[in-house]
Protein: SAM-dependent methyltransferase
Organism: Crocosphaera chwakensis CCY0110
Amino acid sequence: MVIHLKKVVPVGRTFDEYIKMFNLTENDCKRWILSVADGPASFNTEGTQLGYTIKSVDPLYVFNSEQIKTRFYEVIDDIIKQVENTSNDWVWSYHKSPQQLRKNRERVIALFCEDYEQGKKENRYEIGELPKLKYKDNEYELGLISHFLFLYSEYFDQQFHLDAIGEMLRVCQEVRIFPLITLKHEISPYVDIVIKIFKNKDYECKIETVSYELQPKGNQMLKITKV
C-alpha cells in the first residue's frame, strides 16, 4: 500500500491518554507492548523514558519527522475549527476545551518528533499495517490499538476486522481495542460478531468502561485474552 502524506491526518495521543483509554496498570506497562496504528503518539516516547518496552507500528513511519510535523500543522487548524463548530458534540472531561485539545496535540507532536528519528534507529518505530504483521507468534505480551479498528467501520469491513484482530492475537497474548464506536458515535456493528467469533475460539472477551472519553459513548475498550 502506498501512503500519501497529503491524505494523512497525523494526530497522536499522550502516554496518560493511553493509560486511561486502555485501563493500563503499572504491571501492564511492564509487559512487552506492541502498539499498532500508533501514528505520531507520544506513548512510545514517554513510556521509553519511564523504562518500558514499547514497539510502535504504523505506515506513517515511511516519512521523516519534519514531514510528519509539517503535515500536522497543515491540518490542525481545520481540525480544531471543526471541533469548535461542533463543541456540543464532544465530551470535555479530559480535554477541557477545543483550545486545550489543540495544546495537548501540539505537545504530543513535539514529543514524538524529538524522539522519532532515534526511536527508528532503535527499532521502536517500524513501518507496518494490518491485517498482516511481520512479528513472530506470541512475540509480544500486550497489543494495543486505538482509533482505528471499529472507529472506521464504514471503511473497513467485517472481514478486515476479523483478520486484523486475529493477526494481533497471533502476535500478542492479549489485545485491547479502543474505542468501540464509529465516527458517527454509534457502537460498531462489528463488536458483537468479533466477541462471538473469538469466544468460540476460546478467547476471553471483555468490554471495560474506561476513564477517558472525548467522543460521546466512546468510553469503552474491548480486551481479548488468550485463555
